């Protein structure tokens, strides 16, 4: 990344100011700040700070409501999966019964 005059304390470049405002408006600055503060407040610093940031950056925007909604969705999908597995088992049993009946519909002598 090019670190021009803006980073050395000289006047801000209009493009950089526009980009900074864009990042602030999008919440990027707040998210990064939150993760970095969290890293700073760790009693024992992780061996890989970059990995810490990657792991925690995704969790910054999630609220407890998001987590609860996702947990409920997992519960619902597991119930649906169990119901469909039971239905699948029943249908396989029916299919096996029909396959075992002779084709002419009569009984074998």
From TrEMBL:
CDD domains membership: ZIP_MycBP-like
Alphabetically ordered keywords of this record? Coiled coil, Nucleus
Which domain of life, per UniProt?
A: Eukaryota
Belongs to which family? Belongs to the AMY1 family.
**Protein name per UniProt:** MYC binding protein
PANTHER family per UniProt: ASSOCIATE OF C-MYC AMY-1, C-MYC-BINDING PROTEIN
What Gene3D superfamilies does the entry give? 6.10.250.1060
* Single GO MF annotation: transcription coactivator activity
**Which residue ranges does UniProt annotate as crossing the membrane?**
none
The UniProt entry, under InterPro entries, shows: AMY1
Q: What Gene Ontology cellular-component terms does the record carry?
A: nucleus
Q: Where in the cell is it found?
A: Nucleus
Q: Which residues form a coiled coil?
A: 60-101
